[in-house]
Structure formats: structure tokens, C-alpha cells
Amino acid sequence: MKKIAIIGAGISGLYLANIFKQNSDFKVLLFEKNEEINLDDGYGVQLSNNSVKLLNYIGFDQLDNSQKFFPDNLDFYSIDNPDKICDLNISKFNSANNKYTTIKRSSLIKFLISKISKDDIFYGHNISKIDLQEDQIELSFSNEYSGKFDYLIIADGVFSKSSSLISNSKNSLKFNNSVAIRGTINRDKIEKINFQNISLFLGANFHYVIYPTSENEDLNFIGILRKNLNKDRLKNYQQFNSSDFVDEIVSEIPPTYNQIIHKLDNLKCFPVFITDEILHLNNKNIFTVGDAFFAFPPSFAQGASQSIEGSHELFQNFSINETEKYFPRRLQKTKMVNKRSKFNQFAFHLSNPLFVLTRNLIMKRLVKNEKFLENYLGKIYDN
Ligand SMILES: Cc1cc2nc3c(=O)[nH]c(=O)nc-3n(C[C@H](O)[C@H](O)[C@H](O)COP(=O)(O)OP(=O)(O)OC[C@H]3O[C@@H](n4cnc5c(N)ncnc54)[C@H](O)[C@@H]3O)c2cc1C
Hints:
Layout: E1 2-7, H1 11-19, E2 26-31, E3 44-47, H2 49-56, E4 68-69, E5 74-78, E6 81-88, E7 101-104, H3 105-114, E8 121-122, E9 127-132, E10 137-141, E11 146-149, E12 151-154, H4 161-166, E13 173-185, E14 198-203, E15 206-212, E16 219-226, H5 231-235, H6 243-252, E17 265-275, E18 286-288, H7 303-319, H8 326-348, H9 353-366, H10 370-381
Parallel strand pairs: 1-2, 1-12, 2-8, 5-14, 12-18
Antiparallel strand pairs: 3-7, 4-7, 5-6, 9-10, 10-11, 13-16, 13-17, 14-15, 15-16
Helix pairs in contact: 1-3, 1-7, 2-7
The site of flavin-adenine dinucleotide (FAD) has 33 residues, from α1, β3 and α7.
């Protein structure tokens, strides 16, 4: 039996630990730097059909529907105009057992953890050294634990320490010139939107999304505001946990846009980092998945879904002993998703009134164009 170490118990690492239970040729151990998993209760995540289908392989369809929500449409609005621009039927890609889903992150993570044996997850294990030996990989952690493995899967997120321990190439991360604003909002505080749908509000250099994660609870809010932060500020990540940073961001949102912000609970702001260049690790026994492989701009809501999809592909490649096929295939899909994510962010944040008018007219046509939808979304939601 071959031994696999996974670094990082986020969505990617946890999905992998679950799916590898289906292949008894491998023993998987999961190492997480935190003493427990931060569940950030209340915040949501969108899961498109590509990831729901794969999650169903590990029993997601058995999770009670009261913990999930299945939106019908994606409604587009201008922040400063009460009339809806148009709507896109995202449920058109659904099948009986595989539906576009919104869910609390905490519910998804709890589901993923519930199926992993406690003996296979090691909390409080911060990777500190990766020693490449002839046929094995020796891992050392800050708590002085060390162990030898046949394979290493790096799933430690956008700031991947593991990748930097084995690669000499320059940092492949880039600040996305934007800040994410996260919160929840009580249904009584919001008018005009359809609670069956995802509502996307577009404004100059700012867009936000509101969606339910269950039938009756508070709605999830996520906004992306264009903002420059200089290198010195970005170095000090701790400041972003402070209420001063939240106040600074809120004060920068124009008054016509910020009424919604004052209605939010559990408000948090943080800078968004994306991958600039994909790192190809030249080692046949080491792989990266999820945000450690590639972090997308968050305007296509594909990060978690791609993390699951990439992890599943890697599992399949292990099962047929063709792990060399993982990187080229993942690269291809990543490029497709990245292009769309960047384009969405550009289109969502237009500020020139003439461009906005043109964008809205084009969008009204595109959301009803089957060929376009199949190409723009279908290709991503299919796997
Ligand atoms: C604002 C915003 C909104 C988003 N919304 C969506 C959405 O609606 N839908 C969607 O699909 N995606 C969304 N995403 C993206 C999605 O959240 C991520 O792509 C996904 O969570 C990545 O999962 P991961 O497991 O690769 O990394 P992470 O979730 O970052 O997990 C990494 C894990 O590794 C651990 N770790 C880190 N360093 C070490 C170390 N040195 N040693 C050991 N362990 C370590 C961490 O503690 C963590 O548990 C959004 C992203 C942002 C920024």
C-alpha cells in the first residue's frame, strides 16, 4: 500500500481524503496547521454542477436538503437602478440528482470531515521542511513530527507554504487589486429581490452577490470592491482582521452604493490574491490541488468547484496509474475558467455609462442564447 500525505484540510484536501477511501491501494494522511478547522459559520459558497456531481460520489446527495439551497436563476441588477437587467436560468444545467447548489461553508466542511477517520487527520501540523529522497518524500512539521511518504499532495491554499518550500521560482501570487467584503443579511432588511435566486448587483468598480444558503435563514453577501493596496500594506496580513480595515473599506464605497453595507451582519473584509503564473513542480510524486494549484478571481464562483474537480481528476489519475496526465488536463481547464473569471470581473465593474448601457443590452441577449450559455457555462459545468 502506497502512503500519501496531503497538506491542508480545506475543501481540496478534505475532498481528496474522502475520495481516496474508495481505493485501498493507498493510505492517505491529512496534515492541517490549525488546531481545529475554522468553520466561519454563516458564510456561503456556490457549488456548480461539476462539483456537486463529484461530491455525490462521496454521499453529498445523502446530506439533508434543509442544509442546501437550489437557486433557479441568476438575477442581474444595477446597484443604482431598481429594475432588473436580466436573468439567467442556472438550473438549466441541473439533473434530478445534480443541482446547482448554495450552502454554508460550515455545512460543506462538516460534511467533508464527518466521513474521515479521526486517526487520519493531524491538526496543529504546520509543514516546515520537505526533503526529496530517492523514492520517498520526508516531511517535517513545526511540532517536530516527521514522516516518510511515497506521494505528497499540496492542498494548503493560495499562500501555499509547501510549494514555496520545494520551488525556487519567484512568488507566483498577485494581488487582484480588489478587496472582498463578506457578510450576512437578514431577509427583512432587503427588498425587491427574489429569494429563490442568486442576485448579482453591478456597479462601477464594485459588484456584490446575495444568495440564500437554506430555505429560511439569513442570506449570504459577498462583494468585490476595486482597491489598490501597496506592497508594504499587503505584507502585514494581520491588519486585515481589524475593524479599522473594515471601516476604511466601508468609507470608500460611494454613498449611492453603500446602503446595503450598513444592513450587513458579521462583516469582514480581506484582500483578494490570485495566481499569476502556474507553478509546474518537476517531481513525478508531488502534486498541487485547489488554490495551491491556481487561485481564480472570485467573479465566476468557481474556486471551490475547481478545487473539487481538480482533486477528483488527480484521484482518477492515481487509480489508473497515469498521474503524469494530471497537470496538462488541469492546466487546460484552469485556463478556460481563468479567462471567464477575469472577463466577468472586467464586465461587472464597468463605469463608463455608455459601456454600461452596451453591456446591459448585450447581456439581455446573451442570457437567452443557448449556444452562448453552452459555451460559456456548459463547458465549465460539465466534466
Ligand atoms: C471572496 C471569495 C469568494 C469565493 N466564493 C466562492 C464560491 O462561491 N464558489 C466557489 O466555488 N469558490 C469560491 N471561492 C473560492 C474558494 O473559496 C477557494 O477556491 C477554495 O476554498 C480553495 O480551497 P482549498 O482547499 O484549495 O484551500 P483552502 O480552503 O485555503 O484550504 C487550505 C488549508 O490548508 C491549511 N494550511 C495552510 N498552510 C498550511 C501549512 N503550512 N501546513 C499545513 N496546513 C496548512 C489551511 O489552514 C487550510 O485549512 C471564493 C473565494 C473568495 C476569495
